[in-house]
Structures are given as C-alpha cells and as structure tokens.
Design goal:
Blueprint: H1 2-16, H2 43-80
Length: 81
Amino acid sequence: MKSIRIIVTLLALAFGKLPRPSAASPWRSQQNVSGDDNRERGEAKMWVIIALISAALIAVLLAVSGPTLALLWSQVLERFG
C-alpha cells in the first residue's frame, strides 16, 4: 500500500507540473522567447513525465503480480531445470 501511495503522489506531482495551453498560444506554436534556436527545448519535460509514469506502472504491475511470477518461474525451473 505504501508503494501505491508513493506512485499516486508522483503522478499527482507530475501532472501538476504540466504546462496549460492557452487560446493565444497553443503548445506547438509557442515562440521561442529566449532567443536561441533550440525549438524542442520544452519537449524533454514531457518525455520525463512519460518515463516516470511508465516506471510507476511497471512498479505497480510487479508489486501486484510479483509473487505469482516468482511461483511460475520456480515451477518452470523445476520442470525443465
């Protein structure tokens, strides 16, 4: 239960940091205000959030199905090992 609470907190923090699009400047048509030519500068944050969410989902799946997978693996090793 503690790991699920941590994952939910991480997801809430991740989604709380997402930029909100406005009618005047959607995400894709935002102009670069810093003056440099790096157009994909803001995209790294979205990939970090996607990676965190993926890692959280894998952790939940392993927490839920871990004992079953361990039992299955030991049965396979007993049968073929």
